[in-house]
Design goal:
transmembrane, binds ligand LFPHGCPZ, nucleotide-binding, Beta-Lactamase, alpha+beta, membrane, 29 helices, PAS-like_dom_sf, 26 strands
Length: 811
């Protein structure tokens, strides 16, 4: 007997015993009641027992009813039918009543049993119907696509989801082959179907399937066999679930996890209370804490003491109101070192809007900060000396001026410019110049207070910013001490000693100006005054300097206009040959016929023309005018050897000066041998090595070259030998005090002797007296120039003697 059968047997035995029990209990109860109350009610003695049979069959079915009928019959027979207490048949009527009772009992029991079975059938049918309906509902409304297929894989039934996915109705599918409806079913799916048809209980897998519309979907499919009543496989049940969204979500989750693990950003996730739930490896690498050390802790563990409570309060306020906070924050590593992070903290809320997590992502920006600081340093400091540069100075001046304005205090700017630094650069080379600048910066720094700012503006210019100045005299003290500091010569690495001085211009703020640019230009102007005042000294800025600056601006405008309007002209001064005492040449000297100002001497405008670059067009004008004049004189038959023209440093430094001079000579038609170019000693020295090349290019044109103002510059006698020059002009400052200044006389004697030795012509400038002339003749100086012979004059005013001697015509 199978377990199921045994269980059924047990159930039916129990059921039978229960029914019999019901019949006995109800019958005995009814009999007891009747015995107690209705024992004398004969002939209705059976009547009260009918309800017992009724209820017994009602609750116990046929078996209960028959138990009750039998028991009641026997009890009635024994107790109520005469002769009582015996089963003897008293009379036929008694027998009839017994029989009748029994038959009635049987009928009642049968009837009830029938009713009971009918009820049960109805209930079973109802249950079965409901079950069927629910099963149908279950399949029909299942969230997956479910289909029942026969052995040929024809649809027997499909769930609504299946139909929806396909966009087809039941009629369209039922009876058709699955593979006809889906001809592109992947092969491994088909394998699953075959396995199910072969009786394999369950095949399942996931697969991608590009649908007809080109969209790729991911499906999880399951196939299993279903069996007929006789146990044979009737077909398969297919269940297909579109898990594209889940797949995507899973991929995203995987991606997120990968990002979390491999991100170079540190990531931390906390719960709503701020307890750390997870940290990624980058977090560990940056902070030095392992995940185990942090999980369950609060991120305040990482706090540095760089930020106050207000900072964190504001941060959380922002997180909650904006949903995130982003900014720079300083935290502490496990090692204790504090470092800057660029951090974003975002809040994660659930559907109800409650905070569930905080996510913090950050990068360690300590490197970037360092680079930023380096860049800031580079942008604000001079690479040679390491001092603040102009940019930083201006920002500090702005700040100092704002403080002075607020506190009613004062400050000063000292503009320092090294004297003749260019000479060092040109003669000793740029490396030596750089070394000197570094040493100068060091010496200046030594003399200044921590609070003072020393900056290098570029070249040989330095600025000192003095703040909180109680009195202007303090600025003068500083200027004096800085000048003093440079008095000791600098020993360069080459072993050479260099002497250098500095000129200092001082401006006071807010007295001299209320903006940095103005105060700086005031200091600059004052520095120029210091230079003019003999160098190696200092000057305060005064209003009169502004006046001078304004005049300079006005003069620059006038100079430009003068050039355009042809207000410039040339005067000529004779050059006297000492042996014949005849004029052998003339020097062309520029004059400006400025309207309303008369004849302006060059000393008043040449320096400005040099500064502004106007000297270039002016110089070309002089050269052209002098050559044309000389050409005219020659054509008129004048007996003259040279026209001397001053060539400014600016002109000489022009790369194409030789071409320009050649062009003018060609234009004017003057043979080059008649032209003498005078170049000052300082213009040559300022040009360093290039000077020689440039001179040779000019000399190659066939003209003559003279060194002007000889003895005033940073003389290097070596160049006299190298340079292709024809003449030196002894500066008039050495001639002026002859015969009273023996030192000057010695110098002139030495220069003349040296020129002779080098086979150069020598001319003395500024000869005003007979005594000077006599001395120069005694020295056998070749030539002379000076008021003793003639002042510079316009050609039309040449003295008659000249004309007689030189044969000048009025041209
Ligand atoms: N680049 C150019 N410079 C020029 C040009 N023209 C002149 N200058 C330079 O201007 C400076 C002043 O020149 P100027 O006022 O003309 O003075 C010259 C003479 O007048 C003056 N001189 C001549 N003799 C005497 C004298 O006996 N006593 C005395 N006190 N002064 C005298 O000397 C100046 C000529 O000097 P130099 O050129 O060195 O021969 C001056 O530096 C000019 O060079 C120009 O066109 N371009």
């Amino acid at each position: 007997m199978t377990e199921r059968m045994a269980k059924a047997w047990d159930n039916s035995v129990c059921d039978g015993l229960y029914r019999i029990g019901v019949g006995i209990v109800i019958t005995l109860t009814a009999f007891g009641l009747q015995a107690a109350f209705w024992a004398d009610l004969s002939p209705y003695v059976w009547l009260p027992l009918y309800p017992a049979i009724f209820f017994s069959s009602r609750f116990g079915g046929f078996l209960g009813g028959m138990t009750s009928t039998t028991l009641a019959t026997l009890l009635g027979w024994y107790f109520f039918v005469p002769v009582r207490f015996s089963f003897a048949l008293a009379s036929p009527s008694g027998l009839v009543s017994i029989l009748l009772f029994f038959i009635m009992g049987v009928l009642l029991s049968l009837t009830h049993e029938q009713l009971r079975r009918a009820n049960r059938r109805t209930a079973d049918e109802k249950t079965s119907r409901q079950t069927h309906e629910r099963t149908h509902l279950f399949i029909e409304q299942a969230p997956h696509c479910i289909a029942l297929l026969d052995r040929d894989l024809r649809y027997l039934a499909v769930s609504r989801r299946w139909r929806l996915e396909l966009g087809r109705g039941c009629d369209d599918l039922v009876g058709r082959r699955h593979y006809d409806v889906h001809p592109d079913i992947p092969e491994d799916w088909k394998r699953g179907h075959r396995a199910a048809l072969a009786g394999e209980s369950l095949s399942k897998d996931e697969a991608r399937w590009v649908q007809a519309d080109g969209t790729e979907h991911v499906y999880r499919w399951v196939s299993c066999p279903w069996t007929e009543q006789n146990g044979t496989v009737g077909g398969i049940i297919l269940s297909v679930e579109d898990i594209t969204a889940d797949d995507r979500a899973e991929k995203e989750a995987r991606l997120t996890a990968t990002m979390f693990d491999h991100s170079i950003e540190g990531i931390t996730i906390t719960d709503a209370e701020g307890t750390i739930l997870a940290v990624n490896p980058a977090f560990t690498a940056i902070t030095g804490y392992s995940a185990e050390e942090l999980i369950g802790k609060n991120p305040r563990l990482l706090k540095s003491d760089r930020h106050d409570t207000a900072f964190y309060t504001q941060m959380f306020k922002t997180i909650l109101s904006e949903g995130y906070w982003r900014g720079e924050i300083w935290n502490r590593r496990k090692s204790g070192a504090i470092y800057p992070e660029w951090m974003t903290i975002s809040v994660v809320r659930d559907a109800k809007g409650d905070v569930v997590n905080y996510i913090g992502t950050f990068i360690d920006i300590s490197r970037a900060k360092e680079s930023e600081e380096q860049l800031f340093h580079l942008a604000h400091h001079d690479p040679l000396t390491g001092l603040p540069n102009r940019l930083l100075l201006l920002s500090r001046v702005h700040h100092a001026m704002a403080c002075a304005d607020r506190d009613g205090g004062k400050g000063a700017l000292l503009f320092l410019d090294l004297d003749h630094f260019k000479n060092v650069n040109d003669s000793l080379g740029h490396a030596a110049g750089d070394e000197l600048l570094q040493a100068v910066a060091q010496r200046y720094s030594n003399r200044l207070r921590e609070a003072d700012t020393l900056c290098r503006m570029g070249g040989d210019e330095f600025i000192v910013l003095l703040e909180n100045l109680r009195e202007a005299d303090r600025a003068a003290d500083v200027a004096r001490s800085l000048i003093e500091e440079l008095k000791v010569p600098f020993r360069l690495s080459s072993g050479r000693d260099v002497f250098i001085g500095t000129s200092v211009g001082i401006s006071i703020f807010p007295d001299d100006g209320k903006d940095a640019g103005k105060v700086l230009s005031c200091a600059d102007a004052a520095m120029y005054q210091a230079k003019k005042g003999g160098r190696n000294t200092y000057r305060f800025y005064t209003e009169s300097l502004t006046e001078v600056a304004n005049q300079r601006v006005a003069m620059e405008v006038a100079l430009r206009q003068g050039l355009e309007r042809g207000e410039f002209l040339l005067h000529y001064q004779p050059l006297i040959d000492m042996s014949s005492m005849r004029p052998v040449g003339v020097e062309a000297l520029l004059r400006w016929q400025r309207p309303g100002a008369g004849l302006v001497p060059p000393g008043q405008f040449i320096p400005l023309a040099e500064e502004t670059g106007l000297i270039l067009p002016l110089g070309e004008f002089v050269l052209g005018a002098a050559c044309s004049q000389m050409k005219r004189w020659l054509e008129a038959g004048a007996d003259i050897e040279t026209v001397a023209v001053n060539l400014s440093a600016h002109q000489f430094h022009q790369a194409d000066i030789a071409q320009r001079v050649a062009a003018i000579l060609e234009e004017t038609g003057l043979p080059p041998g008649y032209l003498e170019l005078e170049i000052t000693e300082s213009a040559l020295m300022d040009f360093g090595e290039e000077a020689e090349t440039r001179l040779r290019a000019l000399k190659d044109l066939g003209l003559r070259l003279a060194i002007d103002d000889f003895g005033t510059g940073y003389s290097s006698l070596a160049y006299l030998k190298r340079f292709p020059i024809d003449k030196i002009k002894v500066d008039q400052s050495f001639v002026r005090d002859i015969p009273h200044d023996t030192a000057d006389m010695e110098i002139v004697a030495t220069v003349v002797a040296m020129a002779k030795n080098l086979n150069l012509q020598v001319l003395a400038e500024g000869v005003e007296t007979e005594a000077q002339l006599a001395y120069l003749r005694h020295l056998k100086c070749d030539a002379a120039q000076g008021y003793l012979f003639s002042r510079p004059v316009p050609p039309l005013e040449f003295p008659p003697l000249w004309n007689a001697v030189l044969g000048f015509g009025v041209v």
